[in-house]
Amino acid sequence: MTTDPRQAALTAATTPEPWDILVIGGGASGLGTAVEAATRGYRTLLLEAHDYAKGTSSRSTKLVHGGVRYLAQGNVSLVREALYERGLLKRNAPHLVRDLGFLIAAYKWWAAPFYGIGLKMYDLLAGKLNLQASRYVNKAQALARTPTLKQAGLKGGILYFDGQFDDSRLAITLMRSLEDHGGVTLNHAPVVGLIREGSRVVGARFRDDETGQEHEVRAKAVVNATGVFVDDIRRMERSDVKPMLSPSQGVHVVVDRRFLPGDSAIMVPRTDDGRVLFAVPWHDHVVIGTTDTPVPETSLEPRALPEEIDFILRTAAQYMDPAPTRADVRSVYVGLRPLVKAAEGTDTKSLSRDHVIRISDGGLITLTGGKWTTYRRMGEDTVNRAAAQAGLPERLSLTAGLKLHGATQADLPDHWKVYGTDAEWVQTLPGANQKLHQALPYTEAEVRWAARAEQARTVEDVLSRRLRALLLNAQASIEAAPRVAAILAEELGRDQAWQAGQVRAYTDVAQGYVLR
């Protein structure tokens, strides 16, 4: 057993000295805000109730993009901002972001020129940070890039470029970057109440889920960045507050790479319900999605509706040959979008994807909306507001040029690339050549690294977010869980009963990702 790093983090978090900025929430918006604050030299603490990117931030379509469909809606400013941030993210985290070609197949004579014009505007809005210019491809070129595209009636297509990334690995990279710049961060530490002096919010009470002990922390500014759960925190300040969000869920299915063996993704610009659909190569698998279904309430583990899965597979079958069936699905995952409420009767496809910052009468700063691509801009805007409100010394933002933890241009093997410069250290640990499961690419050394360097505390932390086993092959991940539990128990000093409980808890969660 190595020294458990959690106690040092807990001691640092509970210092009696007030923090400059306390961030509640360890997803895209919370981590972006905390990194922004720490790099400006503000004393920063982040508290996460479960684990970094536990919710929507680990369940995206894996794209760093401007949002082609927002351009079709006329939201040019949102697209321009996202394209700019896409370019910065590729530059600042080259180990996590790569260029990916997307093919829009043309089966009607007018489709290629119609979409080609729109995508030229997409290129122009990206300016000098554009990845590659969009272009027309003929039928043979389209099939060379996407061999499983349906050939009957295919005229050619438009090829454009966006970014692809690993969402929860970016979250872990931001957590490490936060620590690199003096910030303190703690997961499995849910906020259970806000501290007020008079009407002002001056801190929070949180519970250490591993001991059950509660602690108080004080801060000059408190940021609520809990994604789809922001209203839960807002109600801690005022129980009758009106909800901000109209959440919707997006479903994805994951299948084997043989269904999309080329080097490009497929983008369907208009599905039967008026959305776009992607089939994207990712970690030697293919992610297909997504849907946009309003949901009445938020959940940590939302579940796909049967009709959503049918819709995805039915739409994929219109473009792919062979097309995946239910029997081919390795995993189904669902993310909830924090869409800010609009007028009654507005469908979720029309709600703003831009981020929103609201400050309560008591000074609680709530950030919600947005997407992974613009996480840095969300953080910058939020810290600007928080610093002004708290009277912190004015300091320039540095994150536009900040290389994130592990950043490297080195051409690492695909499996190790997400670790960046840490990859060589991971491979020195015991089990670097011992796979966890034959259907998964991951090794025992990565479990040890997750516990020692990346704050993994549970089997789910490891198999879902440090490694992506749950999303790549849910059943294989269940079979790997006992070995992961044993390694974690060795690293963290846990007993057999803890291991058994971890395997049960993980299996309960992972069964929801297996398509029956």
Tell me what you see in this structure:
This protein has 516 residues and is of the alpha+beta class. The protein is built from 17 helices and 18 strands. It has helices at residues 6-13, 28-39, 68-72, 76-92, 111-126, 139-145, 167-180, 230-237, 306-317, 375-390, 414-417, 423-426, 444-453, 459-466, 469-472, 474-492, 496-510; strands at residues 19-24, 44-47, 63-64, 97-106, 135-138, 156-165, 184-186, 191-197, 200-207, 214-224, 248-256, 264-268, 277-282, 285-289, 293-294, 331-337, 355-359, 365-369. Strands 3, 4, 5, 6, 11, 12, 13, 14, 15 and 16 form a 10-stranded mixed sheet that branches. Strand 17 (355-359) and strand 18 form a beta hairpin. Helix 2 (28-39) crosses helix 10 (375-390) and helix 13 crosses helix 16. The longest helix is centred in the last third of the chain and has 19 residues, at 474-492. It starts with 5 loop residues before the first helix and ends in a 6-residue tail after the last helix.
Which features characterize this protein?
flavoprotein; alpha+beta; 18 strands; 516 residues; eight-stranded mixed beta sheet
**How large is the share of residues in beta strands?**
15-25%
Helical content class:
25-40%
Count helical runs. 17
Shape: globular
What can be said about the biggest beta sheet? Answer: 10 strands, mixed
Give the terminus-to-terminus CA distance. Answer: 39 Å
Question: Could you give the count of β-strands?
Answer: 18
The averaged pLDDT comes out at 94
Name the structural class. alpha+beta
Q: List unreliable stretches of 5+ residues.
A: 343-351
Radius of gyration: 22 Å
